[in-house]
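Chapter summary example.
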Amino acid sequence: MKRRVAYFLGLCFTLVTLQLRAQVVQLAAGYRPFGQAAKRVAFSWDMFAVGIQRCAVTWAPPLSIEGKSVARWRDRGTYFEWDTARSSVDGYEQEAVVACDYRTAPVTTVRMYCINSDGEASDTWFRCP
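The structure predicted for these 129 residues follows.
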């Protein structure tokens, strides 16, 4: 029983020490809470965080996929409260272009309204190739 307690306390001490060290390194690198994004360092809380892009993709006129009208990205399948997330806007653009194979009109326009991981928004329009 004493070995389990010692193991548990040692594990907790090690994890807390690593986390505190990572936070000290981030503060030394210039991070300030509620300011700019933290510099990523080993063993920090966001070490595995990935910047993602969010895009709302629409097609005008709607595509026809398996007899279903698809005007928006989320119309492709079951809606689970969120849209698919990608690590870059290029991923959304590639998927949108591939989906253009299902267009119903010779001229189909794709609109991508995106918000990047820095909070900047972009609104891009292009025709299906």
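To summarize the output: The CA atoms of residues 96 and 110 lie 7 Å apart.
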